[in-house]
Amino acid sequence: MSYTPKILVVDDDPTICYVMEQTLSPDGYEVRSGSSGREALEFFAENTYDLVLLDIGLPDMDGFETMSHIHRKSPDTPIIMMTGDATIESAVKALKSGAYYYLTKPFHIEALRKTIVNALDHKRLESHRKQSQKALRESEKRFRDLVENSLIGISIIQNNKIVYQNPEQ
After folding, report:
1. Which residues have a Cβ under 8 Å from the Cβ of 15 and sit 6 or more positions away?
2. pTM reported for the whole predicted model
């Protein structure tokens, strides 16, 4: 049984939400949509999402405030900001605020698909990296505890120099 990534689309334009659902669902994503920042936060209170497509111009709170709330609850969730009123300032602000990517409307569906795949791959790789680092730290701790509590003397020699010697028991 394979995992179905969950995408949340938040846009005040119902047509954008509908098109996203109709386009992304056949690609193997579970898509839910909302039309306001408050609705997005309610969805996040009920569930987790692997990716968020978030419009900057929302009726109740802007996309930046919504993104801030989402990142507090789920810091590893990539957020792709979207806007029909693109400026360099808003792009810089979005990326500095933690957006994974910034799309201007209208956008090509294929560009959106590639961005989604890249964002989900990035999230998966980051998760694996964190798991690997945790496993390495745990392994190093077990090794250190074993060596330091050994009843026999252990020395590590590199380039004819002792670089480690366990405490005497």
Report:
1. none
2. 0.78
Positive/negative CA dihedral, 97, 108, 121, 30: positive
Q: Which two tokens stand for residue 152?
A: 């026999």
User: Residue 79 and residue 54: Cα distance in Å, rounded?
Assistant: 7
Angle between helices 37-46 and 63-73 (to 10 degrees): 10
Q: For 12-16, 28-32, 159-163, which range has the lowest pLDDT when averaged over its residues?
A: 159-163
CB-based contacts of 111-119 (< 8 A; 24+ apart in sequence): 112/23, 112/53, 113/27, 115/80, 116/7, 116/24, 116/29, 116/51, 116/80, 119/51, 119/78, 119/80
Residue range 100-154, pLDDT digits in tens: 999 999 888 999 999 999 999 999 998 889 899 999 999 889 888 887 787 788 8
Could you give phi then psi for residue 156, rounded to 5 degrees? Answer: -115, 125
Residue 49's closest CA among 26, 80, 27, 19? 80
DSSP designation for 27: G
CA 135 distance to own-chain centroid? 20
Q: Which of 76, 86, 84, 17 is nearest to 44 (CA)?
A: 76
